[in-house]
Specification:
The complex is a heterodimer of chains A (about 325) and B (about 800).
Chain A: E1 5-7, H1 12-21, E2 25-28, H2 34-40, E3 47-50, E4 59-61, E5 67-70, H3 75-79, H4 82-87, H5 89-96, H6 101-106, H7 109-113, H8 120-123, H9 165-171, E6 175-180, E7 183-188, H10 189-192, E8 211-217, E9 226-232, E10 240-251, E11 254-263, E12 270-271, H11 273-279, H12 286-297, H13 309-325
Helix pairs in contact in A: 5-9, 11-12, 12-13
Chain B: H1 42-47, E1 62-68, E2 74-80, H2 82-85, E3 90-94, E4 119-120, E5 126-132, H3 135-143, E6 146-151, H4 158-162, E7 193-201, E8 210-218, E9 230-235, E10 241-245, H5 250-261, E11 268-272, H6 288-298, E12 302-305, H7 308-314, E13 321-329, E14 335-345, H8 353-362, E15 372-380, H9 395-413, H10 417-423, H11 444-453, E16 483-496, E17 505-515, E18 518-525, H12 534-546, E19 550-553, H13 571-595, E20 606-608, E21 611-613, E22 619-622, H14 623-627, E23 631-639, E24 658-671, E25 676-687, H15 694-713, E26 719-720, E27 723-724, E28 745-748, H16 765-782, E29 788-789, H17 793-797
Parallel strand pairs in B: 1-12, 8-29, 10-11, 14-15, 18-19, 25-28
Antiparallel strand pairs in B: 1-5, 2-4, 2-6, 3-5, 7-15, 8-13, 9-10, 9-12, 13-14, 16-24, 17-18, 17-23, 20-21, 21-22, 24-25, 26-27
The chains are: A alpha+beta (about 325), B alpha+beta (about 800).
Chain lengths: ~325, ~800
């Protein structure tokens, strides 16, 4: 591990200042991902700013059912919060399907969003990786890409985002509250996450010193009819091979509104707008669900060893929407 | 309980003893052979007080680090250590030129350099060593070593490495028809073939009513022990060294270290440090020579501990295998012939590949009677990670193939798969494909029939389903819709102890003296305790044979003769046998002393509960009184009955000492839409000859069953272009307790008359039959052929 300086700021402003002043600094919260990557030499910060003492650990439920989740709320605490379980079961389910009990006790909400990819080339400093070392190349297309992206990738990078929680948040239209050197602002998740394009090293729109202080989930009246499902190689705990977060509102026998986000298929949580648009106004049937998800996946660019994700993802979407609506399959 | 003075001086006494060096194991447990006393290291391990090899410590020690090759195949043009050596805190940087003796080691063939010289043959091969006063400084300095590599294209396919054709389709040319191409792209000077085992039995042209063919492949499994490779080398100031290390066979390590260091065995003394699991992965050397080199060079103790990532490169793995089988049978289901080709990818160095080929080949068709057999089993050098010993040792791979074939044949014949197996099952008196008559009980049919009679688990109830009981577990992946249940069976047999003419033995030293009026025994062997419970067995045997309660287990070291390897399911048989022999010699001497003190006839006397008693149970005198002030010590070797090398052309010969038999029934729920699995139950019936410790036997069967299941459904080291892609326990998945099903277990005890107490080695057989049973259950549920393990979601859903 590269030697680094360690700072424990007394407040958000001081944390932001420390982060902004030192290029290559990293905020440390639960440490479950950053510390591992530092041991591997993938992350090599000069300064680690420990934000664990800043509080930011409250969950506030507003009168409309919206949530403001402090950045440092532990995954375990968030998953069992009564309002989360009641209003947005998919959030709770996504959290509980991620990692192990010990990790969830340690990992934080904001840290979860900023996890780095599990791409094996990113994790191995002896190999080229455009995300880790811009311009060094990407061995994944010809190499091990079984769990890499079929959507949203680029010639430079096909890494997948590893979070389960972020997939459910994407379906819920969540935003993050950010405090930066220029003050406070909010970002929608699709503004937070960037697709790799020619710059896979840039994963988010956060600038040096930008600190996520909270996750804001707007009210979603039909969020009570939501679910998160995940396929993985080991039932007890493992990263996703394919996952889906979905919420659906069926009124008068037709789909009035629907939210679908896909995990483990793209460099960011993949909001399936195309599938959502295709479903609105239709009767909720398994064949309609399948046609919708196939429309979404029609733009996919699978490789030989990850092409299985297309039918698998379609099956997960159909199964979760069918369960939520009682459609027969 | 206090301990008396020791009769022998351990090697460690010659130098200072590190913190974390093993102590004598003693406890208040009671119980001899056939009971299940508490293990002497159990409480220490549960409370976290047990010192593992990574806990070793000396205040003035240095930390050693290994620089490894990032390339699977390359020539080393130059190594520049100047910048590393100039790093403050660095004490030594060593390369191949610094190896004091012969720069070579290896378990069976000496083909691997201690430090690469000229050529690296796999990613992770050790190139240079650094010692520094802090581990992080050593790691940073290692990165400053500049190695100039000329990178070559790696050879990563076992058949291509031999010049054999790739199996693009069924029924193309058998490998035997193709001339071996040893000169093409040779990884080693003598070519890429490590061993070709041939078995030729009966008539190769015999015709059958029904023939089934299949190709099967098995991925590379890791031993996944939790305690990483680690040890501490302490120089003695006189040119010798004491090494404390977690290993499986102290004396074979010592032999290889002496060769590499150019020292004699009395100069290289090994002590077994706390072992955190082994499963075959510690049979080969890891940090042993490296740590000793750094210690001798610097004159200071040197500790080395691999991290998890390095551990994946620091030990051998289970051989991946590609196999092609052809089974022929009569219409009534009697096997007529089996032909098979088996390729074991041995990776860059031989390790135990020759013996893996021997086991995989000789037992390559399973515990069935077949009159006509052709087997070609190959062990091959490639530029993949070296493969060697892992629990099941060659038999795990073939069992996946031959048991899938038996199911395929049963389906073709319209027969029940158990009926087909029972019809062809080996029994005592049967002859194996390598021409060996089974001369002890072989209850293959009974194992299967007992499994069939065990009640099946309940079908899932529609209401109130616990997510944990479903495929996908708590990931909420399925609520039970579209889930299909399958049931699969598999049976296997596995040799116990070392085979093919190897003079396999173990040594035990047993000492008894009277201490505070009670007899106290110290048992000293070099046989490695790796978690399996041998220390408990040693105590139990001493208690039974000498009639005493208090038995201390001496630290394992090279001050006593070889214990042989803790592998091949052999330690209870071999070291247990040696302890028994030593106890019998001690008992004779106790009775000799007793004769000086009594006129009573002692010819039929026994030692029971601390006393010398007559056959009718009358107490003649206490053992303590018989011993008086004497200290009795006896050392004995236990050799198993001789075996012989098999004929190189026909594969015939008395190759194996003993066989162990097990069978499994797996019940698996499969979500066929999402490719998810839940092993609902894994039942096992195993013949253990005699259960010396019933709890330990069940523990071995549970652990082995889980490890075999892991290979069937999740465990694989992903290797692309010769490089390991998942060297972490985040990406290399092993079953957790949540993935592990209930395991109803029946233990049979049909004594083997050739073995101590009639016992059979237990540890490996359940690892072999569990995975094929799980695979069979998934096939039954899905109707898919599933010829590769581990079975992944995409194999079930298709692409």
């Amino acid at each position: 591990m590269k030697p680094f300086r360690y700072a424990r700021p007394g407040g958000v402003a001081e944390a932001v200042r420390s982060g902004a002043e030192q290029p290559g600094s990293r905020f440390l919260a639960g440490g479950t991902n950053l510390v591992d990557l530092m041991k591997l030499g993938v992350e090599r910060p000069d300064l680690v700013v420990d934000v664990g003492g800043l509080g930011l650990d409250e969950i506030v439920v507003d009168s409309g059912g919206g949530l403001r989740i402090g950045a440092n709320v532990r995954n375990s605490d968030l998953a069992v919060h009564p309002a989360v379980r009641r209003e947005l079961p998919m959030l709770s389910q996504a959290l509980l399907s991620g990692a192990s009990g010990q990790l969830r006790n340690q990992a934080t909400a904001a840290g979860n969003l900023l996890q780095r990819t599990r791409c094996v080339y990113f994790q191995d400093v002896s190999k080229p990786c455009n995300k880790r070392e811009p311009g060094s190349g990407c061995p994944a297309r010809q190499g091990d890409h079984r769990n890499l992206a079929v959507l949203g990738g680029s010639a430079a990078c096909i890494a997948t985002h590893p979070s389960d929680f972020a997939v459910a948040l994407a379906a819920a239209d969540a935003e993050v509250a950010v405090t930066g050197p220029a003050g406070e602002r909010t970002l929608r998740l699709d503004e937070l996450y960037l697709l790799p394009g020619e710059h896979p090293e840039r994963e988010t729109s956060l600038a040096p010193g930008d600190l996520i202080t909270a996750i804001v989930v707007p009210p979603l009246p039909f969020g009570t009819t939501s679910a998160y499902r995940k396929v993985r190689d080991r039932a007890s705990y493992a990263f996703a091979v394919a996952s889906v977060a979905a919420a659906i509102d069926v009124t008068d026998g037709v789909v009035r509104d629907v939210r679908i986000a896909l995990g483990a298929v793209a460099p960011k949580p993949w909001r399936a707008h195309r599938a959502e648009d295709a479903l609105r106004g239709l009767e909720p049937t398994a064949s309609a669900f399948r046609a919708a998800v196939e429309a979404e996946l029609s733009v996919a660019e699978p490789l030989p060893d990850n092409a299985f994700k297309l039918p698998l993802t379609a099956n997960v979407v159909v199964s979760v929407l069918s369960d939520l609506t009682g459609a027969s399959r | 309980m206090t301990t008396p003075t020791q009769a022998t001086t351990p090697a460690a006494a010659r130098t200072r003893t590190p913190i974390g060096a093993p102590g004598r194991l003693e406890n208040d447990a009671k119980g001899g052979v056939g009971t299940s006393p508490q293990r002497p290291d159990g409480a220490l391990k549960v409370t976290g007080e047990f010192a593992y090899s990574s806990d070793l410590w000396m205040d003035n020690m240095l930390w050693g680090v290994t620089l490894r090759s990032p390339h699977p195949f390359a020539r080393i043009r130059a190594v520049d250590i100047a910048a590393a050596l100039a790093t403050p805190g660095v004490v030594a940087v060593l390369t191949a030129a610094d190896v004091p003796g012969r720069n070579v080691f290896g378990l069976e063939l000496s083909d691997q350099p201690v430090l690469a010289d000229d050529v690296v043959r796999y990613q992770g091969e050790a190139v240079a060593l650094v010692a520094a006063d802090h581990p992080e400084i050593a790691r940073q300095a290692a990165k400053k070593i500049r190695v100039d590599y000329q990178v070559w294209e790696p050879i990563t396919d076992a058949r291509a490495a031999l010049g054999h054709p790739t199996w693009n389709r069924l029924h193309d040319h058998p490998a035997e028809d193709v001339e071996l191409s040893r000169s093409a792209a040779a990884i080693h000077p003598k070519g890429n073939l490590v061993r070709h085992l041939k078995i030729r039995k009966g008539d190769p042209d015999e015709a059958a009513d029904v023939v089934v063919r299949g190709e099967y492949s098995v991925g590379m499994q890791d031993q996944a022990f939790l305690g990483p490779e680690s040890g501490l080398a302490v120089p003695d100031g006189e040119g010798g060294v004491d090494l404390y290390v977690a290993t499986q066979w102290l004396h074979v390590d010592q032999r290889q270290i002496c060769t590499a260091l150019g020292l004699t065995p009395d100069q290289v003394r090994l002590t077994l440090a706390g072992v955190g699991g082994a499963f075959g992965g510690r049979e080969d050397l890891s940090m042993h020579v490296h740590g000793c080199m750094l210690a001798l060079h610097t004159g200071k103790p040197v500790k080395m501990v691999y991290n998890r990532e390095e551990s994946f490169f620091g030990h051998v793995h289970r051989h991946p295998a590609e196999m092609r089988y052809e089974h022929g049978a009569t219409r009534d289901g009697t096997l007529v012939f089996v032909n098979c080709d088996i390729y074991f990818d041995g990776g860059a160095y031989a390790s135990s590949t020759p013996a893996v080929v021997g086991n995989g080949g000789t037992m390559g068709i399973g515990p069935y009677v077949v009159p006509n057999v052709r087997i070609d089993a190959y062990g091959v050098y490639t530029n993949n990670p070296p493969c060697g010993a892992m629990r099941g040792f060659g038999s795990v791979q073939t069992a996946f193939a031959y048991e899938a074939q038996m199911d395929l044949l049963a389906a073709e014949l319209g027969m029940d798969p158990i009926d087909l197996r029972v019809r062809n099952a080996m029994a005592e008196g049967s002859v194996t494909p390598h021409g060996q008559t089974i001369d002890s009980p072989a209850p293959v049919a009974e194992l299967l029939q007992r499994l069939r009679e065990m009640p099946l688990p309940a079908e899932p109830d529609g209401a109130d389903i616990d997510l944990r009981s479903l495929p996908g577990g708590v990931a909420n992946s399925t609520h039970g819709e579209g889930v299909k249940r399958g049931v699969g069976y598999a049976v296997t047999y596995k040799n116990v102890a070392f085979s093919e003419g190897f003079d396999d033995y173990s040594t035990a030293r047993v000492q008894i003296e009277a201490h505070q009026g009670n007899p106290l025994v110290v048992v000293h062997t070099a046989a490695a305790e790796v978690g399996q419970g041998l220390v408990t067995i040693e105590q139990q045997i001493c208690r039974t044979e000498l009639g005493v309660e208090n038995v201390i287990v001496h630290p394992k070291n090279t001050d006593v003769g070889s214990g042989g390897s803790t592998s091949a399911s052999r330690q209870t048989y071999m070291t247990g046998g040696a302890v028994k022999l030593a106890c019998e010699a001690v008992r004779d001497r106790i009775l000799t002393l007793a004769r000086d003190r009594t006129d009573a006839p002692l010819d039929d006397a026994a030692l029971v509960d601390g006393n010398i008693v007559t056959p009718s149970g009358a107490v003649l005198m206490s053992i303590a009184d018989a011993i008086g002030e004497a200290v009795i010590e006896e050392t004995r070797e236990h050799h198993h009955r001789p075996t012989e090398e098999i004929d190189p052309e026909t594969g015939q010969g008395f190759a194996h000492v003993q066989y162990s038999f097990s069978a499994h029934r797996a019940v698996v729920d499969v979500d066929t839409e999402l490719g998810l699995l839940k092993v609902v139950e894994l039942a096992c019936v195993q013949d253990v000859g005699k259960a010396l410790n019933a709890d330990a036997v069940v523990g071995q069967i549970q652990g082995g069953s889980a490890q075999g299941m892991g290979l069937a459904i999740m465990e694989e080291i992903v290797v692309k272009d010769g490089k390991i892609r998942n060297p972490s326990f985040t990406d290399y998945l092993i079953p957790t307790i949540l993935d592990t099903p209930p395991m109803p277990i029946q233990v049979l005890e049909y004594a083997d008359p050739h073995a101590p107490y009639g016992l059979r080695g237990v540890g490996e057989a359940p690892t072999i039959s569990s995975g094929p049973a799980v695979a069979a259950a998934i096939r039954q549920a899905t109707g898919l052929p599933l010829t590769r393990v581990p079975i992944r979601p995409e194999h079930i859903t298709g692409t």
